[in-house]
Amino acid sequence: MRLVVGLGNPGKKYKDTKHNVGFMCLDKYVDDNLGKFKLENKFRGESLKLDNLVLLKPHTFMNLSGESIRLVMDYYDIDVEDVLIIYDDLALPLGKLRLREKGSPGGHNGIKSIVSHMGTQEFQRVRIGIDSNPLIAAKDYVLGKFSKEERTDLNKALTKTSEIIEEFKNSKEFTIIMNNYN
């Protein structure tokens, strides 16, 4: 069993914000594969099981994402090696993907929570660039919505990430996936 987690914040207020890129990626994958998320209180999030793959959108809010992920991992007995986390990154240009097998949280509170609940920084991840704006505080910027112009680059990134999820689902070696998309 493999787990793909898209990070974001639940609720209409946060829908389509830059911090919800992880949720958007999972929504794109599910739309392409004709599935539907179900709210699962036992996981504190929305989930969908497709064959050997579990998709999760934690509803614990970004800063407590690790709690929801740990619940799913324990329920399905999923190893850290079979987890992929998708999230936004202010340090990357808009739409740029960066895949890694380990790394520090880099100031991302969702990743800090995941590291705390997994007990390791060594897990597979897809970082999606949302860019930054030095004139806007980071916490305000990430909660802003994408402009019409930004949507073009975002949509390309969502499509590529959907392909990555499919390759991950099919147990393709993550090193190969990284080489194809980095």
Based on the model shown, name its key terms.
single chain, 182 residues, alpha/beta, Rossmann fold, 7 strands, 20% strand
Explain the layout of strands and helices.
Blueprint: E1 2-6, H1 21-32, E2 38-40, E3 45-50, E4 53-58, H2 65-76, E5 83-89, E6 97-100, H3 109-118, E7 124-129, H4 138-142, H5 148-169, H6 174-181
Helix pairs in contact: 1-5, 2-3
Protein model, in words:
Helix content is 38%, strand content 20%. Strand 3 and strand 4 form a beta hairpin. It is α/β, with parallel strands linked by helices and 182 residues long. It has one domain: Rossmann fold (3-Layer(aba) Sandwich). The two termini are 25 Å apart.
Provide a count of the helices.
6
At the first level of CATH, the class is Alpha Beta
Distance between the termini: 25 Å
Strand content: 15-25%
Short description:
The chain is α/β, with parallel strands linked by helices.
